[in-house]
Amino acid sequence: MRCMQKKASNSSESIKLLSVVDVLEPLSTEEIHWLAQRTTERSFHTGDIVYTPADACAVVFLVLTGAIRVYRMVGRQELTFDIFRSATIFGRASSMERTQDEYAEALEPSRVGVLDLRAFWQLMSQNPDVNARLVKLLDDRLRLSWSRMTDIALKGVPARLASLVLDLLESEGVVTREGHYKIPARYTQEQLATMIGAKRVAVSKAFGKLQDSGCVRLYRRQIYVVDLAALRCIAAAD
């Protein structure tokens, strides 16, 4: 990603999308317009790289639409640290300091606002409510990251996969007409494998065990949870 281009994202649609970003909701209309004038909007196709370790720009990323995956290379294997969906912030603001081996990739067609870090901190210094929301957001993400790393270190693949399904269910799940739960996003087994530090074949076998237990089913690459209590039991197993 090249950070030199500057084109203000101040259309009415972009302003509306900025106004619903989680940490920015306390801002006034005037402050949102101020922010929009300093934000560059970029569009990405599925699979496009948002940034690589070579991109050293001090910027904040605002997901306006779509989904962005942040991952690192561990040897030759990708390890996904987080997936950021629309109406949230990521990048330098969420990690405070990007590591040298961090990448970000669009999981689906996405629109991303790019804001200079200095402008973001100026906004933060003048808005304690935004500051408080950011602190809570960072704390929640840190706890989730530690939880996943602990799972990778201590649990088998079926338990890790069950924990991941529960996390995805909490962040993006919906209820079906039958009263079951569904994760709308169509994650590939390879993508799920990078999120729990496993091989794709191990994830495939783990899904088989979860389906045999009757707690989940797969349909057209979507995950349905039909027995939440059973899924929680498997997630809690060592």
Query: What's the CATH topology name of the largest domain?
Result: Jelly Rolls
Number of strands: 12
**Structural shape:** globular
The secondary structure category is alpha+beta
What percentage of residues falls in helices of 4 or more residues? Answer: 40-55%
**Tally of contiguous helical segments:** 9
Which residues form runs of ≥5 with pLDDT under 50? 1-6, 93-98
CATH homologous superfamily placement of the largest domain: Jelly Rolls
| Straight-line distance between termini | 41 Å
Strand order of the largest sheet: 1-8-3-6
Number of domains: 2
- Rounded average pLDDT: 90
Oligomer kind: single chain
Largest sheet, strands/sense/barrel: 4 strands, antiparallel
How large is the radius of gyration? 19 Å
CATH architecture of the largest domain: Sandwich
CATH class of the largest domain: Mainly Beta
> How large a portion of the residues is in β-strands, by DSSP E?
25-35%
Order of helical and strand elements: HHEEEEEEHEEHHHEEHHEEH
Detail the topology: elements first, then pairings.
Layout: H1 12-19, H2 29-37, E1 39-44, E2 49-51, E3 59-65, E4 67-74, E5 77-85, E6 88-91, H3 92-95, E7 102-106, E8 110-116, H4 117-125, H5 128-154, H6 157-172, E9 174-175, E10 181-183, H7 189-196, H8 200-212, E11 216-219, E12 222-225, H9 228-236
Antiparallel strand pairs: 1-8, 2-7, 3-6, 3-8, 4-5, 4-7, 9-10, 10-12, 11-12
Helix pairs in contact: 1-2, 6-7, 6-8, 6-9, 7-8
